[in-house]
Amino acid sequence: MPRRLQRALLRETAGLYPLGVAAICLLLSIDFLSVLARFLVEQGASASDIGALLLYRTPWFLHLALPVGVVFAVLLTGGRLAKDSELKAAYAMGVPPMSLFRPLVLFGVVIGALSLVNNGFLEPRGEAAYQRRIDAFVYARPPAEVQIDSAYRIDDAVYYAARVRSLTGDHTLANLEGVVVQLADGTLYSARSGQWDASAKTWRLTDAQVTRPGSAPVRTGDVGLPFALESSPGETLVRSTNLSLDQVWRTLRSVQRAGGDTRELTYDLHRRLADALSSAIFAAFAAALALRVRGRAAGFAWTIVLLVAFWATWILAGNLFQAGAVGPVLAAWLTPTLATVGAGLLAARTLRS
Question: What's the pTM value of the predicted model, to 2 decimals?
Answer without folding.
Answer: 0.86
